[in-house]
Amino acid sequence: MTHALFAYGTLMCADIFHAVSGQRLAGTPATLAGFARHPVRGESYPAIAPAPAAGVAGQLYRGLSAAALSRLDAFEGALYQRQRVTVVTPDDAPRTAWAYVIHPGQVARLADGDWDFAHFVTTARASFLRQLIHRAG
Question: What are the residue boundaries of the structural domains of the chain, listed by start?
Fold first, then answer.
């Protein structure tokens, strides 16, 4: 059995996704309605929280193994809880996937505003990836 994952933050980068999950999968653009993406205070990564009027763009990865999902669970840790969501892909097809949503007890760690993926890629992606590789080594 394989799984699908909606990634909305650092895992949208294929190299980071591979380093964390151990799988190389092609992502498909997808949108998740009913959630907003915010920076986590003091970190370079975001979290999503329910927000009825909002939506989040990200990547849908399909074909994720159970082992890869376990690795992702360990990576995401206690800040998040994995939950089922429905995303929409460019062909307007709804797809069920897992997403890591901020744990209700951790919401105070969110900063105001939207997390900026392009800013992450240009300013923090390389060091984030180096830290992942260093921890794994």
Answer: 3-136
Give, in order, the Cα–Cα distances in Å from 69 to each of 40, 114, 136: 22, 26, 16
The domain 3-136 having CATH identifier 3.10.490.10: the answer here is yes
Q: Going by C-beta distance under 8 Å and a sequence separation of 6 or more, which residues neighbour residue 1?
A: 66
Residues 6+ apart with CB under 8 A from 46: 8, 9, 37, 38, 39, 40, 115
Report, as an integer, the average pLDDT of 74-91: 96
The residue-averaged pLDDT of 46-56 equals 97
11 half-sphere exposure, CB direction, 13 A CA radius: 29
Both tokens of 29, joined, read 């653009």
Average pLDDT over the chain, rounded to whole?
Answer: 95
